[in-house]
Amino acid sequence: MEKRDELYAGKAKSVYLTDDPDKLILHFRDDTSAFDGEKMEQLARKGMINNRFNAFIMTKLEEAGIPTHFEALLSDNEALVKNMEMIPVECVVRNIAAGSICRRLGVEEGLDLNPPTFEFFLKNDALHDPMINESHIETFGWATAEQVAKMKTLTFKVNDVLKKLFLDAGMLLVDYKLEFGVFHGEVVLGDEFSPDGCRIWDAETRKKLDKDRFRQGLGGVIEAYEEVARRLGVELP
Ligand code: 5GP
Q: Whose CA is nearest to atom 21 of ligand 1?
């Protein structure tokens, strides 16, 4: 597999073309951002941890029958993935209230959400990722009704798999954001699953073990990411 030109640089990952038009290389950088890129820092080891963490989770999801773009771990910071047409929509499931739902709806952080909620957001930093609904997605052509239904089903299926995985390791999966793409006509999970894009709390103490440590200036960001990885059994050098 030959790495070619950079296709795109996001806030935490860069995407490279390869000699295979169906494959891309994701490079996980140490850059850490919050508030649509307003707060930015480099945290040593973060790229490597998220790359290995993501590989571990994507493999678990594949094993559970959820199609993902993940193909192989290439190095500490790089993974080989399918080259998909990305759907510019973020899918969020919440098991416990935290973050924007508390601000928007005035609910208290820590409230159990039963059944879990599902929300769509438009992936657009300039507009601060506004919340959207299925009607917007269809009207503006971001995805078809069929693709919307598939994204929802797969996002909830991810919840079934990962809630248990985290709980078995003494952690609560509070919420998470997924992004999907289309590969040869099929809706497939893309982007990454790492503590950058989900909330994870210790099940006993409810200590925050995710990017909220960075957003809220709590410190110990990388230590928390490493702890989550270690508890799940992700191998880290
Ligand atoms: P909230 O809407 O509460 O800000 O976020 C809900 C969940 O989705 C959290 O786990 C958060 O980390 C994740 N999330 C929402 N938007 C983004 C985003 O633009 N980037 C990343 N990495 N995660 C996001």
A: 197
